[in-house]
Prior knowledge:
The chain has five helices and five strands. It is globular. It has about 120 residues and is of the alpha/beta class.
Amino acid sequence: MARILICDDSNLSRGNLKKILTAKGHEIIGEAVNGEEACKKYGECKPDLVTMDITMPKMDGITALKKIIQENPRAKVIMISALGQAPKILEAVNSGAKNYVTKPFDANKVLTAVDEVLKA
């Protein structure tokens, strides 16, 4: 199972992701509430996988993704977005995101995306 960093400014979203991922045996090694904190915790924790919300205060998820990919080009990051953010999802994928999941979360879609990224 994977060591995962969850980055989302919504406490509810972080809680839902944590519940879905830990139920399948993944370990949540850290949580971040903005992109700046995500970059810092990524460097400290070196997770196997990151879930990254796109819209966050201080530093958005796409900027944080770019910084993480710059630090580790092999980083595995799944973007989390609200419906209607197709242009931002495309930008994230072009910037190195390995997959994406849209809110509200469907547990099976989250786990499928995580499994696909971990196997790649």
